[in-house]
Amino acid sequence: MDQFLSVEEAANTVYTCLEGFTGWKFLKSQRCLKKKINNLELCIDFYTSKWNRSHEYVGLNAEFNIVYKKLGKLPVQNKVAYYEYHPKSGDDTYWFDISTKNKLTKKCANTQKQGVDYGNQYTRSGQC
To answer: Which residue from 44, 58, 64, 101 could staple onto 33, CB 3.0 to 4.6 Å apart?
Structure first.
């Protein structure tokens, strides 16, 4: 049986895993990974469930944003792309269950494949 993680331990593992993989900067106060390229800002924001209980259940979801700073200072003015990460199947289709090390590893790998690919498409194509 897999060992259940605390809420803080599970969330921090996701952050460090993705920070190491992407090379983006993790901003602890905003709970997001960011990368700036000229006037574009690529950002993955993380959210945790209010129902999280250490060593029982840990739910987390994320959203990927591309912000173009020249459009304005307010987020509603400058957000040019947006993608929400949600489970495609299972009991809960809003929160990713990262309660155990095995579940956490699978979710981290999926996020690496999806969201980072979106960001890399922009940086490789020279559109930035």
So the answer is: 44
Using DSSP, state whether 100 is helix, strand or coil. Answer: strand
DSSP tag of 20 = H
**CA–CA separation, 62 vs 79, rounded Å?**
16
Beta strands 96-97 and 59-68: pairing type?
A: antiparallel
Averaged pLDDT, 72-94: 78
Closest by CA position to 96, among listed 58, 46, 54: 58
Mind spelling out the 3-state secondary structure of 50-99? CCCECCCECEEEEEEEEEEHHHCCCHHHHEEEEEEECCCCCCCCCCEECC
CB 66 within 8 A of CB 123: no
Phi and psi at 41, nearest 5°, equal -130, 120
pTM, two decimals, is 0.77
How high is the pLDDT of residue 118?
Answer: 60
Show contacts of 20-27: CB within 8 Å, 24+ apart.
Answer: 21/112, 21/116, 22/112, 22/116, 22/119
